[in-house]
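Entry:
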Amino acid sequence: MIFFRKFLVSVLIIAITASLGGCQFGRVENSLVYDLDAVPVNLDPQSAADSASLLVISCLFEGLVTADDDGSIHPAAASGWEVSADGLTYTFTLREGAKWENGDPLTAEDFVFGFQRLLDPDTAAPEAEDYYGIENAEEIAAGLAEPETLGVEARSDYELVIRLEEADSRFLELLDQAAAMPCHRKFFEETRGKYGLNSDAIMGNGAFYLSSWPEDGNLSLRPSKTYHGAEEVTATSLLLVTPKEERASAVERFADGTVSAAAFTGQEYLKLAGGDYTVLENGNAVWGLVFNLGREPFSSAEMRRALFLDADFSTMEQALPDYLEHLEAAVSPGIVLGGGESYRKLAGSPSFPELDRDAAQAARDAALETVSPESLRTARLIVPEGEEHEKYFAYLSQIWQRDLGLYLTVETLPEAEYQSRLDSGDFECAVYRLSGDYNSPGSVLSAMEGGPFGCTDPSYSGLLTQAGEAEPEQAAQLYLQAEQMLFDQYLFLPLYRQSEYFLLNSGISGITYDFYSRTPDFRFGVVS
């Protein structure tokens, strides 16, 4: 859930701001500027993976539906849909006025071709697995069936049918992702393998079109006159600025009015307190400890249990800044389910072990029957740099040294190295950010499925699968059982919830932000 706030400003300042009208940022009326965090690599929706490319794609394309931060699903390229009683067949009616950038009608066949490309093994789509629930999808991705056998059918130009092999209550949410965007077959074939790699080789059906994309330069977008909701789009231009070494920091560029809006960490946000900004806040990211189950000493469940029983969070809480809050839940309470209900309200909270020093020491002693005492003195904790996790963790570390004889060597690493070490299993434990790619407990909990530190119990995967097919109330209870498994097997030790922020600069309104996909919606941006 996103929370809105407005810093207090005087009536005089508001009046002055209003009088400046469209001169904000030295640009014409409703002209927006936004900094990308990297240079886009590929604007092909079916094969893009980097965050910068996905942000641009969200401006250029529109899927069948769109999802709000509260989990509600709304019509987009489709004007409506029906779901069969068994949850296996989705029938979409496309908007008859929807068009591609060049004026060609957007038809059901464009979605058929998009899904066929997504599942074609030659595309090597990074998100293809998310759509394996579609009939024959997994076989096609494995090269065992032809793309034409996929359970996506155009019954007419404006009627699209998608057949699933198993019911999936979150399927509509997947249709808002980049991978589910349509693809214009004729245009794709004319690009001769360069689709999405330059401004001449990409054509969307969204609110904006790519006006220019010079090599290693900024991307200039303009409103598309063929977009079905063109009359509602207020932004007159959008400049997406690519990183440069000499560029000022994100905080400086926002504070001096260079950019219209920006996403910030808690540390960055505190530097801006007191300005005339609109603030969107999201607190669904939870940081906690994960453990390499293949290495001593945390290969021992008893050693992990000792940490849970000896985790005195009260010593840490006093040092946490405003954007961090301790909580005993593996999934943040702000997440909602498809029906718009709060997950935490429907599910309740998992049971967390109570603080018990004597029981912790007994668990440590039991662990030492299977792991070496030396491993308690040589274990490494890896931490991503930038948020001072090592500073807050030190409070717990001191307790574990005193009570358990556990001495963790803390390694604070640049993000790329941290991620590489995490993926390769080159660590004993790690401070880890647990969050989802979309607004669902399943998206969050699936991050703890398998791998060096995740749950390998088949029943955990089974709970997530069942929950994905269930109605909200039943799904909430199934997800809660999965959460409880993370605690019962001592796999994730939650430390604190982190708030993240999206700020609109003075005089800017109408831009919204999806904290899960990390993409703004610029369509209705206004410069006052």
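The longest helix spans residues 472-488.
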